[in-house]
Design brief:
Elements: H1 5-8, H2 15-20, E1 26-31, H3 36-49, E2 53-57, H4 66-72, E3 81-84, H5 87-97, E4 102-106, E5 113-114, E6 128-133, H6 141-146, E7 149-152, H7 164-176
Parallel strand pairs: 1-2, 1-6, 2-3, 4-6, 4-7, 5-7
Length: about 180
């Protein structure tokens, strides 16, 4: 069924729609993501994958924000989120509540595994925090040290990185797709 632009944007889910959401054991952590359009798009992605929560950290702007709202198309009003001074603090908090939490950082690093060589299945049915970082500086060194795994998406063209939202979307769907 093809939906029109108005049908694609839900202004506010109904109580029935909320009750039908089966949240996945996934937390999305933004480590100093500076572009508010990226932040808004990540809220939209978090809604699409039914993530538990978005953790906004460091210099990442928080709602309410007209720029976040524009990109999030309202999802920031119903996707659960919290703010932390640092991504490291956010991850310590999550791990204190969820001891078997796995941390996956999305970053180009000498320790990174290509998404084509990474066995996402080892994280199936386990709670996971997926961390993305600053658009230029990437995920902080402190968080990379905490990560159980660092994954990257191979680049074959001239540009050497993807947009943070695109990278996060690829990794989340790899993680959440049965059989991967």
């Amino acid at each position: 069924m093809k939906l029109n632009a108005k049908q694609l944007r839900v202004s506010r889910p109904t109580a029935e729609q909320f009750s039908q959401i089966r949240r996945k054991p996934v937390w999305i952590v933004l480590d100093n993501v500076m572009d508010t359009y990226n932040t808004g798009s990540i809220f939209r992605l978090a809604d699409a994958v039914a993530a538990q929560e978005v953790l906004l950290c460091g210099g990442t702007e928080t709602p309410p924000s007209s720029r976040i709202h524009k990109a999030a198309v309202g999802t920031e009003t119903w996707v659960p989120w919290r703010y932390f001074k640092s991504a490291q603090e956010a991850l310590f908090d999550l791990r204190s509540q969820i001891p078997d939490l796995r941390i996956i950082a999305v970053e180009q690093d000498k320790r990174s595994a290509s998404i084509f060589n990474f066995q996402f299945s080892i994280f199936k049915n386990m709670p996971a925090a997926v961390v993305v970082g600053h658009e230029t500086e990437g995920v902080s060194k402190e968080v990379l040290e905490m990560a159980d795994k660092i994954v990257e998406i191979p680049m074959w063209g001239v540009n050497k990185s993807l947009n943070v939202v695109v990278s996060l979307g690829i990794v989340l769907y790899q993680l959440l797709t049965p059989g991967n």
